[in-house]
Every structure is written in structure tokens, then in C-alpha cells.
């Protein structure tokens, strides 16, 4: 056994022999330090210094925000001020952890009020983030996030709180997890649906090397719209390697009628059942029962498996048996805002060895930001702007041009793919609900779905962000271009994406779309040409056609949009 000592701000970190241990980091954020001696197996005796956890930013780490980072009054955060890295959570009481969650939400709300981007997704997972870092031992244990917008509490707890004012700015923190930014970011997250695949790869690599670290992936509602998530979970069930998948269910749905209907309920019974499902004794009893029925005979084993499936299906929420069919042991639902329950379930799951992949279903509230803003009374008012000034984006001009074309031709339909829908697109959806299809983060499906619409005699406009169009290339080539189907691609967020970082930049679409033999490629130089290109695409039926446009505001003060004029001389032989 190797013995290491550490100095950290809150409490003394205690571990039993044989338990996993976290990488110790020296915190310089607090004047009250306690000596501690921690023991763990010698092959994991590497010490992670806090300065190595902010690699790309020159190691600038501190638990306290830099003075002058924000203007205005901020709610006091006494516990958060003492948390420089996750090891400082280990000896906090449940009451203190709850207070820490409130303080993180207060600070995130304050940051959001001083910026032009929403932190709603991160506010919903504050309790879950604290529980994960309390139970597991990053960066030795691997935490992989599917959605970058949910990771800001994670960034604050892993030594980057003082740099949160640089979030999504040049030279500052990335808006997503980044391996080059911190050792606590096990994998880069930006385009979604990749965490289970990457996590499974890490789990298999761990098994091959004979190490023991835990792998935890956190997926969201949006992630479950993409096929890669299910491909990865199916493969995880087949390979039967130990890993944990956390489904953060924020109760969002693409279908408005489902949003209005019944939701998965969280109550004392469901909480008790989740703890029972995750307990080591229950899991071992279940495995022992499987072994007994196998010895009796395959018929008895199959019957017992069916009884188990039906029983768990009746006790669990709708759809829970889907994950069981994929080979993941389902636990849930768990209240995502009850830290005590979260810690209890995660500790049981973390203690399980050789039990294969597990999915923990966690229910969170996506609208938590409103309640927090009321409690902490942090002002969320934006700087006053003239009443007659309404900055318009290229998407606004696209939508108004589509409205004009759809009013003239009822065969025009819009297919939207991606995790975020801009407000103007929602207005288009409301105006033409029967001509608008939002498929979420299912871009590959969106392309082939549009091809099918075209085969059926409709005129689909398929709106996909440039960075996400990259993973649809096989469908674009085989399902659209080779068949010369008139699908109109509106490629949004083209070009450099600024604060969204390199993964969200759309720098390659011109190259990979222009090399297709039947594709017409267009790029407007201003909003007027964009309107004309919408009209051109609406009247072009000889094959696929695409046009790209950037994000951001248009530099003009009037709101007048003229009718589009189809461009002349555009063909697949002479691409624009």
C-alpha cells in the first residue's frame, strides 16, 4: 500500500482499505487546512496537483471568483467558497451538501443574469452533479457528460469557478467539456449522444488493462433521440462490462401532447423501490436465482426471466423494460433533486462489482431556474435597449422567407434537426403545425425522412446545423444525392461559431457538399441573397440543393423583407 498525504479545506477524507480513492489535489483557496493521510493501492498512488486540472488555461485555479469578475451584489456562498475540488465534498453532511447545491444554483443564476446565454440545463443537474462527485472519485473515476450545457456545475466543483466569467469567451473556459482544459473532463462533449459509446470504450480498455476505475456516463432526453445512444447501450449489454449510465430525465418531449399528459411520478414508494433495486443484496439474490433456474433447465430459466421482466415492468415507469431488453439493469426513477436519495442509490451502484452495465433513471426539473431566481432575488433584467431596436438573425430571414413560400405552395414542409430550436422556428411551427416536423437530435433520420417526403411528392426543407450535418453524410450521399431527390438543405450555424467553440463550428460543409455530383451548393453574402436562395430552392426540382448561413445578428435596422426571387442559371453542372 502507498501512503499519501494531502491538505484540503473541509474535513478529513477517510477511506477503508481496498476502496477506490480520489486523486488528491492541493487547494490554495482557503486558510483553514487540515492534514490527512489517505491510503490506496500503490498502482494508483499518482498525485494530481490542482494546477494540472486547468491545462489549457495555464493552471489558473481557485475556489473563489476573481474580484471584479462580476458587477453587482452576489448572494454569499460560504460553503462553495471552501470547495476547490471534489475531494472537499467528501466529509460534508447532507445538510451542507444541500446548502452547497443552493449556493451553486445562486451563482449560476447570477452568472446567467450577467451573460447572454442560458444556464437552465446546468441548474437542473446541480444536485446530481454534487452527488456524482461525492460518491465517485474523479479524475480517477471517469465522468462523461453527453450535453455540454449541463456541465457548468461540474466545472465549478472541479477548480474552474474563478474562471466562470470567461465561459465561452476567447481564451476562456469552453462551453463544453474539454480534455485539453481539465483532467476532470474525461471526454469532450458538444454534439451529443457520444458519451455511452466513449464510456463503453473506456470500460473495455480498463478491463483489458486490469485496472478498476469506474466509468459513469450522463445522458439526457435529447441524447435518447439519437440512434448512437441505443447502439452503444445495446453493445454495452452484449459486452456486459461494468459501467453506469445516468439518464437525466428533465421531462421534456418533442410531442406537446405528451408534455401535457402524465409524467413519471416520484414518491416514497418509487424511492424505496429504487434503493431496493440498487442494493447489493437484491442484485446478488437476483443473480443467484438466475443461476438456480439455469441449473433446473432452460424452460424454467426463460419463464423466470419473463416473470422478472413483467414484475419490473409493472413496478417501473413506462418504457423501463426497454433498457432491460438492451441489456442494462434498470434502477429508478430517482428524484434528481433529493441529494440523500441520489447518494444512497449511487453508493450502492458504485459498490457493485461484476454486475454489468446499469442504468439509473433520474428525474429532474428543467424549469428550476425560475424558482431559483425568485429565491435568491438576483436580478435577471437585461440592459435596456431602445424599444424600436430588434436585432434580427439570418434564421429570422430564413423563417419569413419560408412563410412566404409555404403560403404559396402547401407542398413545402420543414424538417428541423438539432438540440436547440430558435424562437423564430417555433413561430414557423406554430403557424404551420402540419407542415413542420421537429425530430430532435436525430439528424440522420431527418435526412432520410426528408428523402421519403420528397419521394411522396412534398418539398422538404431540412434545417440542420453545419456541425451536426457532418454525421449525416452517409444519408446525404446514398439516400439523397445518388437518387437525385429534390431535398432542400438549409445549413444553419455555418462558419466559425465563436463562443460555441471548435466542435460547434461549421467550417467543412462547403467542401463535403460540393464534391457530390448532383448537389447544388449556395452561400449568400447577405440576408437578401438568403431570401432569394430560399425561393430558388423552393422552385428547384431537378435534384438536391443546399444553402448555408451563419448564426448571429444581421447588421440592418429595418425589418422589411421582400419576396424572394429565384436565382437564374443554377444547375448541378454549374454549382454556385
From TrEMBL:
Keywords assigned: Magnesium, Thiamine pyrophosphate, Transferase
Cofactor: Mg(2+); thiamine diphosphate
Database matches in SUPFAM superfamilies: Thiamin diphosphate-binding fold (THDP-binding)
Pfam family membership, one: DXP_synthase_N
A GO BP entry: terpenoid biosynthetic process
One GO molecular-function entry: 1-deoxy-D-xylulose-5-phosphate synthase activity
Domain Transketolase-like pyrimidine-binding: from-to ranges: 392-557
Record text on subunit structure and interactions: Homodimer.
Protein name, as recorded: Transketolase-like pyrimidine-binding domain-containing protein
Organism: Kalanchoe fedtschenkoi (Lavender scallops)
Amino acid at each position: 500500500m502507498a501512503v499519501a498525504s494531502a491538505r484540503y479545506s473541509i474535513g478529513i477524507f477517510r477511506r477503508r482499505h481496498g476502496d477506490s480513492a480520489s486523486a488528491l489535489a492541493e487547494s490554495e483557496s482557503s486558510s483553514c487546512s487540515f492534514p490527512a493521510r489517505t491510503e490506496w493501492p500503490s498502482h494508483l498512488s499518482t498525485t494530481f496537483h490542482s494546477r494540472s486540472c486547468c491545462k489549457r488555461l495555464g493552471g489558473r485555479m481557485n475556489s473563489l471568483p476573481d474580484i471584479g469578475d462580476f458587477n453587482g451584489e452576489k448572494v454569499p456562498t460560504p460553503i462553495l467558497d471552501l470547495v476547490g475540488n471534489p475531494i472537499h465534498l467528501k466529509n460534508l453532511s447532507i445538510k451542507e451538501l444541500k446548502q452547497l447545491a443552493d449556493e451553486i444554483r445562486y451563482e449560476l443564476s447570477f452568472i446567467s443574469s450577467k451573460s447572454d446565454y442560458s444556464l437552465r440545463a446546468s441548474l437542473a443537474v446541480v444536485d446530481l452533479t454534487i452527488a456524482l462527485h461525492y460518491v465517485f472519485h474523479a479524475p480517477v473515476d471517469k465522468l462523461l457528460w453527453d450535453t455540454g450545457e449541463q456541465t457548468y456545475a461540474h466545472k465549478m466543483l472541479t477548480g474552474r469557478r474563478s474562471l466562470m466569467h470567461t465561459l465561452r469567451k476567447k481564451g476562456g473556459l469552453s462551453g463544453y467539456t474539454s480534455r485539453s482544459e481539465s483532467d476532470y473532463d474525461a471526454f469532450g462533449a458538444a454534439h451529443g449522444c457520444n458519451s455511452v459509446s466513449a464510456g463503453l470504450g473506456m470500460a473495455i480498455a480498463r478491463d483489458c488493462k486490469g485496472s478498476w476505475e469506474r466509468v459513469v456516463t450522463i445522458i439526457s432526453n435529447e441524447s435518447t433521440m439519437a440512434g448512437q445512444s441505443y447502439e452503444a447501450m445495446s453493445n454495452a449489454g452484449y459486452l456486459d462490462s461494468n459501467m453506469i449510465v445516468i439518464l437525466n430525465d428533465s421531462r421534456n418531449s418533442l410531442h406537446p401532447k405528451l408534455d401535457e399528459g402524465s409524467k413519471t411520478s416520484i414518491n416514497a414508494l418509487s424511492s424505496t423501490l429504487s434503493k431496493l433495486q440498487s442494493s447489493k443484496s437484491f442484485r446478488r439474490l437476483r443473480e443467484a436465482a438466475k443461476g438456480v433456474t439455469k441449473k433446473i433447465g432452460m424452460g424454467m430459466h426463460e419463464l423466470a426471466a419473463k416473470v422478472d421482466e413483467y414484475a419490473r415492468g409493472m413496478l417501473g415507469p413506462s418504457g423501463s423494460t426497454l433498457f432491460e431488453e438492451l441489456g442494462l439493469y434498470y434502477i429508478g426513477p430517482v428524484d434528481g433533486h433529493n441529494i440523500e436519495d441520489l447518494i444512497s442509490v449511487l453508493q450502492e451502484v458504485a459498490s457493485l462489482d461484476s454486475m454489468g452495465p446499469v442504468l439509473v433513471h433520474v428525474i429532474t426539473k428543467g424549469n428550476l431556474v425560475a424558482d431559483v431566481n425568485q429565491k435568491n432575488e438576483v436580478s435577471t433584467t437585461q440592459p435596456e435597449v431602445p424599444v424600436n431596436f430588434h436585432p434580427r438573425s439570418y434564421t429570422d430571414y430564413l423563417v419569413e422567407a419560408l412563410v412566404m413560400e409555404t403560403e404559396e405552395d402547401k407542398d413545402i414542409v420543414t424538417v428541423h434537426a438539432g438540440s436547440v430550436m430558435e424562437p423564430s422556428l417555433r413561430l414557423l411551427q406554430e403557424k404551420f403545425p402540419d407542415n413542420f416536423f421537429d425530430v430532435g437530435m436525430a439528424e440522420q433520420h431527418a435526412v432520410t425522412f426528408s428523402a421519403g417526403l420528397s419521394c411522396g411528392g412534398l418539398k422538404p426543407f431540412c434545417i440542420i446545423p453545419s456541425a451536426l450535418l457532418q454525421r449525416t453524410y452517409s444519408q446525404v450521399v446514398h439516400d439523397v444525392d445518388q437518387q437525385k431527390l429534390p431535398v432542400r438543405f438549409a445549413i444553419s450555424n455555418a462558419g466559425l461559431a465563436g463562443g460555441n467553440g471548435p466542435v460547434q463550428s461549421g467550417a467543412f460543409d462547403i467542401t463535403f457538399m460540393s464534391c457530390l455530383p448532383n448537389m447544388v451548393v449556395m452561400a449568400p453574402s447577405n440576408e437578401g441573397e438568403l431570401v432569394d436562395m430560399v425561393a430558388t430552392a423552393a422552385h428547384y426540382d431537378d435534384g438536391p440543393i443546399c444553402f448555408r448561413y451563419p448564426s448571429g445578428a444581421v447588421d440592418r435596422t429595418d425589418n422589411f423583407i421582400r419576396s424572394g426571387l429565384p436565382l437564374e442559371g443554377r444547375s448541378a453542372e454549374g454549382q454556385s
